[in-house]
Structures are given as structure tokens and as C-alpha cells.
Amino acid sequence: MLLRHLPDAIQPTDISALPTENPTASRETHSATDVGSVGLVKPKSQHFSEPLELACGRILQQYTLVYETYGKLNTDKSNAVLICHALSGHHHAAGRHRDDDKRPGWWDHYIGPGKPIDTNQFFVVAVNNLGGCHGSTGPVSINPDTGHAWGPDFPSLRVRDWVHSQARLADVLGIGQWAAVIGGSLGGMQAMRWSLEYPERVSNCVVIASALKLSAQNIAFNETARQAITSDPDFCDGRYLQASKLPRRGLAVARMIGHITYLSDDGLGRKFGRELRSGSFQRGTDEEIEFQIQSYLRYQGLSFSNIFDPNTYILMTRALDFFDLAREYGDDPVAAFSHARCRFLLLSFTSDWRFAPERSKEIADALMHANIPVSYAEIESAMGHDAFLLPNARYEGVFHAYMKRVATELAEEVR
Amino acid sequence: MRIDLDVIQNWITPGSRVLDLGCGDGALLHQLSQNKGVKGYGLEIDPEQIERCVARGINVVEQNLNTGLGNFADGSFDAVVMTQALQTLSKPHLVVREMLRVGRNCIITFPNFGQWRARWHLAFSGRMPVSDLLPYEWYSTPNIHFCTFRDFEVLCKESSWTILHRQVVSESKLGVALKDFLPNLFGETAIYHLTR
């Protein structure tokens, strides 16, 4: 269920939005017929009535996953690629729903004909994760047992639950093995988990700006964001939908905190510096002073709070916090990766301090120790963690080179 | 095919695990995987070379050799190879020591600064040698630690490293004729096979 009861997004200010780990924040204005676009797309929906046992021990009796596909599945169903989304992402990864959509899907730079994830070569599947708020079953869905929205009673999820639910979708689509499972940030964690949970079903794993687990600092940011939401008087212990309220201010602050961590000091400095939006420091005046960065952050926070569900934000950030790839392998990433059977491409960005290059390097080191094929590139970028969503010549080049190789090997196998 | 890569291939055991430091476009690893069934990784810092490796399916990891090999366990590779990169390192001796810690043996190639042409250039023009092989001016060269064959062998002796093989390569006719007689004067490139 989408958040239809919410008012339309507030009007943008005159500040052009920096893209952020936010599916709606790309600045482009292509038309759906542009070269390199998958064009108009329609979300699909798959209901599952077979119960899903979750990592937390609870059982979800039935659920729905909303997803989109781009490109064509080949006859032996070997060219499928799974896109795993990040914290605030969803199934609309590429193309447009309507001709007049202001923005394409959140990863349109990288998915489409002739792009790194080339829809002329691959059948791309993008799923809204379980627990999400864009159509898949989650806290805003109706709990059949109560007739009310699940809200805070929705089961706590871990990354592996997403992986298992995605595997069921693969079963429905007849996909035995993914040519590649690809994700950035939290999506990268899903891709890695796939390689361990279903080693025989993943042929390549592309992990971008991710980590084996969150650092204390990362968890601290997430906790501060959650506190912002839960301390909003309209949070109503998470039952805000029943109370016809919405902790919008809390979610906006949570988003502002997250947003700062997705950008780099340098990037923010270049974009905003100390520019004033209103007022002045002239002597003798006592005007209200507002920096551009203040206005920008407030806009980002508020617009996000109109399209995202607070309980979902809590659920997703907790899944991030809980993720620890090697926990069940004696805390040894090498032991963990020794179960993988796929090849890996790892990418990180120099100015990303939320998922710093060192975190990706740890993954690369563990994979090399485990004797698993891996390539790793550290991409120069001033855009912080958000760089994984943005155009960048080197990023595109190495990503495309890898995917071309995947496509070539697929073609050789078919022959 | 570079001559030094051919020589290296002869010293690599089939099916072994190889780490190639400064692997460039992955030519050596590609050749070793095709001809010797070798598995391994290349380390490289040049973005274009990394992309070339990825495009040809060679495992390449972006890593600066000057930060050491601390991320690799003792004896975790059968062989650690480094071709034509020794002279670019800030502490070449420490990197060789690391190579011998990580690999059971190691293969190193470097240009010979004691070759007669370099000596001639310095002696008679009074300027640092600039040649086809070493085309850089002194101020912009990535080659910051030149040595001669003899220098390198002194380092090996002082460090108690064992030289298993040494092969001297020259592409000029004069060099080919005389490199075995006076290697430090006529050899252009040295290929050393070392162990602890």
C-alpha cells in the first residue's frame, strides 16, 4: 500500500537538489524515449501464500513483493540480473512510469540499453524489499490478523530475509541462477548475503560502497535518526496511521542526519559553502539569517517525509545495524566467503566516509584470502556515499567492463 | 610478448597461486592462466590498467604497493611477481622483504641502470640518462630508485635472500652478444628469482 493519504510533496525551493541516497533525487530530465533509457515501465506484483520463516523466528504467513523488470529473459533464463536496493530505495530502478514523470528510476544512470547494466544483454529484476513502503508488504500494509496497518508490529527483518524472499521471486520467474546480483550500500550487503545463502544461484556479485558490517559510528547515526522519529509527539508508539497522524518532523530530521552522512564535507563545501539564502551579516542589521545548506537540508528532509514511512525507516536502519556477514561463520569473513562460488566486483568511492573504501578493501582482502575471484577499484569522487548513484566516468567504465565480460561469458556458454 | 614475461613463465609451477604486484593490463596473469593454469590476483593503481584487467577477466585489486602487503598472510601465495616496478617504489627493499614473506618465492624484474648506455650518457653528457626504455626527465620520472644488477645482488646478500635464478635480457644485438659475459654492463633488464 502506498502512502496515498499523505499530501503531495512540498514544492521545491530554488535550490537544485543534490542527488542523494534517495530514489527521487536524481536531477536529470530525460524523456522516456531517450537513447539509453528502458522507456516506460510498469511495476508488477507477486503474491506469496507460502509462509516465510524470518530470521527473528516469526513467520510471515503471506506477503506481496512489488518489482520491475527491464530487458528480455533469454530462452535458457541465464541472463537475469537482480538489483538490490539501499535504505530508501525501491523497485523503480530505471525508466519512467509515465511520460511526464519528472525523474526516472533511482539507478537510471546505470541501467538501460548500452549502460553498464545493459538491458540489451540482461534481464534486470528490481524488487521492493519486504518491509518497504512502496508496494511490497511492510509496516503500512494491513495485518490480516488485526485489520489494521502492521505499524510497529511488523516483524523485524534482517538482510537474509530479503534474500530468501527474493529467491522465491526468482523461483516464480524461473530463474535458477542470477548472472549477477548487484547492489550498493545496503543493497551490496544483500548481494554478499546472496553469495553465501545461495552460492549455486549466483554467478557474479557486484558490491558497491558497502561493508561487511556497520561500524559503531554508523550505528550511532542510525540510532540518532531513529530517536528523531520516535521522539516526535506524532509517532504515537508507531501507531500513527491508526491515530491519523504522521511523525513527519521526526522523519525529516532523521533524513537530514542520514543525508549529511551520504555527502562529503568537500562536496557540501563546493555546492553550498557558506552562501546565504536570506539575510546578511552587515553591521547594524538584525535580519533573520539562513544559510543555503540549512534550506537545502530542510527541503530534503521534508520532501522525504512525504514519501517514506517512518516505521519502514526504523525497520530498514535496524536491518542495516544487524547485518554482520561473518557472524555465523565464527566472525571470520574468510570462512564466510569460502562458501561463495561466484566472482566479485567491488567498488568504493574515495570521499565516502559512511561506507569508506577501507570497508570495501576488507571485503576484497577476505575474498582473496578465501581464494575467490575478485576485482576491486577505488573510484575518485567528491560525492561521498551518494557517488554510487551518480554519473562518474571511471565508475561507469570499470562497471561496464565487468558487465560486458559477464555478458560475453554468458554468450560463450550458450554456444 | 615481452621477453621477461616468457622467462617468468618458465619459473612458475603449473597450477600455482600467484600475486602480481603492479600487474599493468594483466598480460602476465592472462598468459599464466592460459598456459599454466595459474590462479591469482594483480595489484595495480592505474585506473586505465585496472579497467583493462577487468575487461579481460583478470582479478585486479586497487592497492598501492608503497603501503605494503600487510593485508596478505605469510606464505599465502606460491609466487609473488613484480615486473618493472621496483624502481618506482618509495622503499623497494621493504617491498621485496614483504614479497618474500607473502610468497614462497618471488620473481622481480627491473631495468639495469648500470647498462653501458646509461653509464655512457651520464659520463659524457653529464646528464641523467633518457632513453627509449627510460623516457622520463629526472624531475618527472616515476622511477625514483634506480639500481644496477650489482647493487641488487649486494642487497640480496646483505638481506640473506637466496637467488635461485638470474636471467639477463637485452634487446640490442650488442647486448644479446655480450650480456652473459658482462651482464652489469650489457644487460638491459634483469629477472631475479628469489627465495628466503
UniProtKB/TrEMBL annotation, chain B:
Molecular function GO labels: methyltransferase activity
Listed InterPro entries: Methionine_synth_MetW, Methyltransf_Superfamily, SAM-dependent_MTases_sf
Classification via NCBIfam families: metW
Protein name, per record: Methionine biosynthesis protein MetW
Protein source organism: Microbulbifer okhotskensis
